[in-house]
Amino acid sequence: MTKPLSIRNITAHYGQTKVLEDLSLDIAEGELVSLLGASGCGKTTTLRLVAGFLQPTSGSITLGGKDLTKLPAHQRDIGLVFQNYALFPHLTVAENVGFGLKQRGISGDAKTKRVGAMLERVGLAHLAERLPGALSGGQKQRVALARALVIEPPLLMFDEPLSNLDAKLRVDMRVEIRQLQRANGTTSVYVTHDQEEAFSISDRVAIMHAGKIMQLDTPENLYQRPANAFVARFVGFENLVPMKVVARDGAKITAEAAGGVKLTLGLEHFGAIPDNFVLACRADGLAVTDNAAAEGIPATLGLRTYLGRAYQYQSETAAGMLVANGPLSKPLEPGSNAKLVPVPDQCTILAVE
Amino acid sequence: MPTKIHPALIGFTVLVFFFLVGPLVIVLGSALSDTTYLTFPPQGISLRWFQNIFEIDAFRRTILTSLQVAVISTFVALLIGIPASYAMSRYRIQLPGWLSTLFVLPVLVPELVLGFSLLKNLAFQFNAPIFLSLIIGHTILILPYVIRVISASLASFDFSIEEAAISLGSPPLKTFFTVLLPNVRSGVIAAFILAFITSVNDVSISIFLTGPGISTLPIQLLAHMEQFFDPTVASVSVLLMVLTVAVMAIVERTLGLTFLAK
């Protein structure tokens, strides 16, 4: 029943504004891929194009080898879960869930049985005769999920399904969504602006910006090995320092940043390092120490903030303003001199763009 | 502790109530008077002025005409107004801003001007039948109300509900009837009532468009008043009120209940 989705070279416009540019995306059978990005990045547009609510300027969309590009939305057979639930206010929970079956000519006992079984699965069998107005946010989203799943679509799409729920429920619901999706093995597209949500439930995540996919990879790879500066910043590499290799010595290199700051980096961690590169470090990746003998970036400490697990310092260096973390055991005063020592686990190497 | 209401507020409320209901009571009282002239309080109680309405042929005919014109023009206005309001709400971003203003423009034009220009350009120019002219005139008159009321109820409609239905396999036109209309039911009922009442009570447009043989009830009432000053005028007014309330009740019941049962 489930099918692979293939988006090929899609370009889309709103009036004169180009919102998607030559976007391609392949999602394997049973895979859950998230589209992640800030508002206006084109993630919802991509979903609406696949759903058939928008037409691309060029490009094609195929589902299991069937071309959807020119097919009207109501013939695409895609299960959709909306941000604001979009339940039919005038129909009961059972009628909402049964709506798609009715359109498919399934009625009577067959329909009642499938709706009942589906409501059982999302734990709402006891609310079957209620109207949506009498449900809580979490219950509404479960009904929306049941309504999309009961038609056994070859493709499921979620448009920020959890953003109207409170934090605790959001975590519970995303686990539930993932379990249902896994159990059915339905190919899924999940649109969200919440990085934690995307990383926690997806097989792969596409980070989008300005109508393009910046990187499509597993959450682990995105988090540890971002492919470019945009993705690096997005996943929390706050410090990007352009550097130039000045000496190579076996397994070590020495590189220089602006302002004459020199660092020695080991190749065993970073792999091959090109002559010109950008060193990307999380705040945890630059350890603040007042040991003047340590090898690191000399800095003058600025504002100190308390993070609970560490102190964070805005640090003035010759290579610019950097954000670095220091131990709780040794708070340092603003204005004091310190060294920022790179922690290889929390740093990565990017190509110069 | 119960909320203390200021005596002045109570007094004011009572005054407003009298202001609203008083004229209706006077009209009803005059209609029941057993005299041959209009008077209040009524002297003697009689239903003969109500009976008189139906004895005068012109009243019988104009009541029928008024009802026909009101029903037909209300339906025509809904037929135009519902899709227009839908398009303006659904495609608000794509459509130019002045479009919704265009549809309520007739409200801004004095009705007398509207009536006169319809007389000149419709009745004289094209020699349109009186009944047709009345339907056209009333439709133009009530269309802005229909569009305003239905647009207001569409403003709170979440169009992703419509998309949800389409994604579940319901074709767009079917979705309009099975998902959208039931959810703006109260707006449609309100528009119907408002349009119907406006049409039945209209004088300023009808006065230009009515002619030999065909007239509406308010116009006939005017004509009658010019000749006689008997309580028939009051009893016709009461009849108009009863008619209006009856239509409101019927629409509320039928439209309301059938949609609820769905």
Overall structural class of chain A, as computed from helix and strand content, comes to alpha+beta
The counted number of beta strands of chain B is 0
The separation of the N and C termini of chain B measures: 45 Å
Largest sheet of chain B: none
**Parts with pLDDT < 50 across at least 5 consecutive residues of chain A:** none
Order of helices and strands of chain B: HHHHHHHHHHHH
The computed structural class of chain B is mainly alpha
How much strand of chain B? under 5%
What is the spatial order of strands in the main beta sheet of chain A?
A: 6-7-8-3-9-10
Mean pLDDT of chain A: 92
What is the number of helical segments of chain B per DSSP (H or I, 4+ residues)? 12
- The helix/strand series of chain A, from N terminus to C terminus, equals EEEHEEEHHHEHEHEEHHEEEHEEEEEEE
Unreliable stretches of chain B: none
Helix content of chain B: over 70%
The value of Rg of chain B in angstroms is 22 Å
- What's the shape of chain A? elongated
Number of strand segments of chain A: 20
How much of the polypeptide of chain A forms β-strand, as a percent range? 35-45%
Gap between N and C termini of chain A: 43 Å
Largest interface: A-B, 26 and 19 residues
| Alpha carbon gyration radius of chain A | 25 Å
Give a quick summary of the entry.
The complex is a heterodimer of chains A (353) and B (262). In chain A, the strands form four sheets. Chain A has a six-stranded mixed sheet, with helices on both faces.
Task: Describe what this molecule looks like in 3D.
The complex is a heterodimer of chains A (353) and B (262). With 353 residues, chain A is an alpha+beta fold. Chain A has helices at residues 43-51, 93-103, 108-121, 137-149, 167-184, 195-201, 219-224, 229-234, 267-270, and strands at 5-14, 17-27, 32-36, 58-63, 66-67, 78-81, 155-159, 187-192, 204-209, 212-217, 239-249, 252-257, 262-266, 276-281, 286-289, 297-306, 311-317, 320-326, 337-342, 347-351. Chain A has nine helices and 20 strands. In chain A, the strands form four sheets. Chain A has a six-stranded mixed sheet, sandwiched between helices. Chain A has a five-stranded antiparallel sheet with strand order 13-12-11-14-20. A five-stranded antiparallel sheet of chain A has the order 15-19-16-17-18, with no helix packed on it. In chain A, a hairpin with a 2-residue loop joins strand 11 (239-249) and strand 12 (252-257). In chain A, helix 2 packs across helix 3 (108-121), helix 2 packs parallel to helix 4 (137-149) and helix 3 (108-121) crosses helix 4 (137-149). By secondary structure, chain B is an all-alpha fold. Chain B has helices at residues 7-32, 48-55, 57-90, 98-108, 111-124, 130-155, 159-167, 172-183, 185-201, 206-209, 217-227, 232-261. Chain B starts with 6 loop residues before the first helix and ends with a helix. The interface between A and B is medium-sized, with 26 and 19 residues.
